[in-house]
Amino acid sequence: MKRITQLSLAAAVALLAGCSLKEEPYGFNSTTNFYKTEADANAALIYAYAILPEIEYYSRNFILITELPTEDITLKPDAGASNFEFDRLAVRPDNPELTTAWRYAYIGVNRANAVIANVPGIAEMSEASRNQLVGEAYFLRALHYFNIVRLFGAAPLHTTPVTSLDQTSAAKASMQDIYALIREDLKKSIELTDATRRDGRANKVAASGLLAKVDLTLASGKVTNSPGYEFVPNAEELYAEAKTYAGNVLTSTSYGLDPDLKAIFDVDKKNGPEHIFDVATDRTGLSEGNYSKLPLMFIPYIDGAVFKLSDSTSVRSGYNHFVTEPALYNSFADADKRRTDLIPSKVYVGKKETVLSITGYSRPFTRKYLDPKQVGEQTSANTPVLRYSDVLLLYAEACGPTAEGYTAVNRIRTRAGLPNLQPSLSVTAFRDAVIQERAWELAFEGNRLFDLRRTRKMEEVLVQKYGKTIQPDNAYFFAIPTRETDLNPNL
């Protein structure tokens, strides 16, 4: 376990998939002898990215807190009580996973702030390089705050590096102010970055796609009267802006809809046409902390089982921790390739084929996080944050039931082996259909909870349709963790 309390960024290059970093309070650092050269700037940006693949963030905890509350996954019976709080939407403020989600997002904010504050002052680098690095930092800060505001609502807003304890007691900023900063940061990122693809890094296309998602969140939150979005002044202007930015992504020649669903999640094809921004993991380390083991969380446990993915590829039994819900599995059409191709149901124990039951202990499981190259328990997989199909559906939602909107959603359905969406839907019915399409297309990727919250469908879908119980305080935002309110009197 590494402990970093001062800035040692040259060494941070090796931490992209390392063990948890404990920082007090959120990454204090010293800039006295740093931020002098372009190498320093690059190291600082790598350090900012390095928070994303931590187990406590995108490589496990983020999936846990965003997927368990939905109809996508549940837990094995002997999972921890704190995990079940998310599954039952009864999350206490002292829940350790909730506290971790808050903590790591703010560590990420502080690291991005350090780049934004210090790299512009480095003279010994080209303007293009400086702009690119700072633009990526703006993207990262926007992503962290987007996660914070969707999870917790109003929260402290830090735009400069926190370097002392007296800076950690900020009061909550309004959702309006947080979203204003997010949109401003993403527009700066679009202006400063280029469109070059760099593995695990953001660019102009990623910033455009994320801004489209932010705009759609605001617009749909306003239209559906979702709690917290009363401040949004004009939903139609935001739908129009979302259409523009999503459209910019769709016209980029470097990205496209992958015709092969399985290829999207092939660990050897990290830069496929569909990948706009993934949290990249490095599986070359030798120690326990170098592996997220996220794939093992989804793979069922059957002693001696081999899970066959193709004639030449298979993986062995896993932890059976995240278990596919019947509600999701049974909602797919029988011919939907997103179920038949991406949720395997057959395994082999010895040479005997076994069919997994969706109501059994070991159930069909997603192949979105599988790693056929795992050695023992040494395994990791990238976590998708923004895919081309995600943006295509954002574009459809922004367009509404127009020719453009129908064309966009039907491209997704055609790839899945389904007929075109019913024509002549009303605006509300069309956008509801797109939200459902997102549920199938983006299952297990951390989008469903936010889609249900922004469209005010938590009760309609989870309670009325699937029979979940939701505590009112958990429906649209989680409580700020007790640890934070105890330490910060302004919260």
Describe the structure.
- With 491 residues, the chain is α+β, with helices and mostly antiparallel strands.
- It has a domain at 284-372.
- It is built from 19 helices and ten strands.
- It has helices at residues 9-12, 38-49, 61-67, 81-87, 96-118, 127-152, 175-192, 204-223, 235-250, 261-264, 294-298, 326-329, 337-340, 388-399, 403-415, 427-441, 448-454, 458-465, 482-487, and strands at 2-3, 21-22, 73-75, 275-279, 305-308, 314-316, 322-324, 346-349, 352-355, 383-387.
- The strands form four sheets. It has a four-stranded antiparallel sheet, with no helix packed on it.
- A hairpin with a 5-residue loop joins strand 5 (305-308) and strand 6 (314-316).
- The longest helix is centred in the N-terminal third of the chain and has 26 residues, at 127-152.
- The radius of gyration is 22 Å and the shape is globular.
- The two termini are 30 Å apart.
Give a brief outline of the structure.
The protein has 491 residues and is an alpha+beta fold.
Please specify the SSE layout and strand pairing.
Blueprint: E1 2-3, H1 9-12, E2 21-22, H2 38-49, H3 61-67, E3 73-75, H4 81-87, H5 96-118, H6 127-152, H7 175-192, H8 204-223, H9 235-250, H10 261-264, E4 275-279, H11 294-298, E5 305-308, E6 314-316, E7 322-324, H12 326-329, H13 337-340, E8 346-349, E9 352-355, E10 383-387, H14 388-399, H15 403-415, H16 427-441, H17 448-454, H18 458-465, H19 482-487
Helix pairs in contact: 2-5, 2-6, 3-5, 5-6, 6-7, 7-8, 8-9, 8-14, 8-17, 9-14, 14-15, 14-16
